[in-house]
Amino acid sequence: MLDLQDVQVPALLEEIFEEHYYEVVGLSILLLTAIFLRLYSHRVPAAKQVRMPAASPATVKLKSTLRLLIPRLRNAQKKDTAISMADRREMAELLRQNREASARIRTENIIATDITVELLEILELYAELLLARAGLLDVRDKNIKDGLGDTEGTGLEEAAAAIMFAAPRIPRDVRELAIVRSLLIDRFGKEFALDAQENKSGIVPKRVTDKLSLEPPKPELVQAYLVEIARTYGVDWPPHREEMQQAQDEVDNEDDDDGDGGAKEQPIMADGAAPATPRTNAKDLNIRPLPPKGQPNVEGSKSPVSVAPPKGTSENPSPRIRLPGGASVKPQEAKKKEIAGGLGAPPTVDDLAKRFRDLKR
């Protein structure tokens, strides 16, 4: 039996430390770390230790269905747009054959298809909103259960009401849309679903209800569609339309040149002398020659006349660009003016000198 009195403790510890150096250091670090975490955990406030609860099974199912619904809505938009383009080509052929009555009736189908595409785009935006904020549905349910009231300003009620109202009325078979509607009814309750179905208190967005209106399109809208289709496919409809448009442009140009009824008269001086003309310094005019075509501007900036053409909608198939002063121009005309503005030859030094001499007179 080993007698502890005969063993020298410092020598034994030194021998163990030399043989198991790394193990001793590692155990010391682990021991100090455990002590530090134990002491620090008592100082952390309780609010910081609360973790976000996991999403409920209903929320997980809703998010997975929304991920399937969004691409289905996009594919439906592409299919309807392709059908609308094919119908437009057929309308152009009917106008070319002077079958105006048939073209007017079939144009209403094109308008209905365009409205359906716009409605699908709106529902896609609401589906993306629900997918991004699906986690707030659990917070909403918890607040209602605790009596804290409903969540405001999140847009969840607006998106849910729009989908509940449009799903049974949309003229397109999207199976995932009906599934999302049933899931939203389970989350928001039957009372909210009835209010959304009947649109009580305007709970459904107006842009959704307008797209689902059963009223036929106005004759002015049908006429605008036919004119736009004829212009796009190069059909002379109405007959002599180009001549009438040129005559109207000439009248508009004459009105612009006349201004307020003609040129302004020069004031008559008391002594019969000519009115004094203010002298203009040539340096203040800041006249610079135009760069040749294909070369960038001196300052590297684009032309201020550059206008992005607006996109046509079912309500306005041929939009016009509003200019200062109340005038308006079509996107194609604006682009022509922009192109024509860069085709002029740059003035020479003699031309600039002649302008300066005229200004000094």
Ordered list of secondary-structure elements with their pairings:
Elements: H1 9-19, H2 21-41, H3 57-96, H4 100-132, H5 135-146, H6 156-166, H7 175-188, H8 190-198, H9 206-211, H10 219-232, H11 241-258, H12 282-285, E1 321-322, E2 328-329, H13 331-341, H14 349-360
Antiparallel strand pairs: 1-2
**Uncertain regions: pLDDT < 50 for 5+ in a row?**
46-50, 282-290, 298-305, 337-344
User: What's the quaternary structure here?
Assistant: single chain
The mean pLDDT is 75
**What's the architecture of the domain at 57-211 in CATH terms?**
Up-down Bundle
CATH top level of the domain at 57-211?
Mainly Alpha
List the strand order in the largest sheet.
1-2
Query: Tell me about the biggest sheet?
Result: 2 strands, antiparallel
Structural class: mainly alpha
Topology order in helix (H) and strand (E) letters: HHHHHHHHHHHHEEHH
State the helix count.
Answer: 14
C-alpha termini separation:
131 Å
Write down the overall geometry: extended
Alpha-carbon Rg, integer: 38 Å
